[in-house]
Amino acid sequence: MTLLQKEYNDVSYISGPLLFVNAASDLAYNAIVNIKDGSGRIRGGQVIEVSDEHAVIQIFEDTRGLDLATASVSLVEDVARLGVSKDMIGRRFDGLGRPIDGLPNVIADKRLSINGQAMNPASRAKPEEFIQTGISTIDINTSLIRGQKLPIFSGSGLPHNELAAQIARQAKVPGHEGDFAVVFAAMGLTQREVSFFTQEFERTGALARSVLFLNKADDPTVERILTPRMALTTAEYLAFEHGYHVLVILTDLTNYCEALREIGGAREEIPGRRGFPGYMYTDLASLYERAGVIQGKPGSVTQIPILSMPDDDITHPIPDLTGYITEGQIVVDRTLNSKGVFPPINPLPSLSRLMGNGIGKGKTRADHKNVSDQLFAAYANGLDLRKLVAITGEDALTENDKLFLRFADDFENYFIGQGGQDRSIEDSMTVAWGILSKLPQSQLTRIGKDAIDKYYGTKVDEMWKGNRI
Question: Where is the ATPase F1/V1/A1 complex alpha/beta subunit nucleotide-binding domain (predicted)?
Answer without folding.
Answer: 134-352
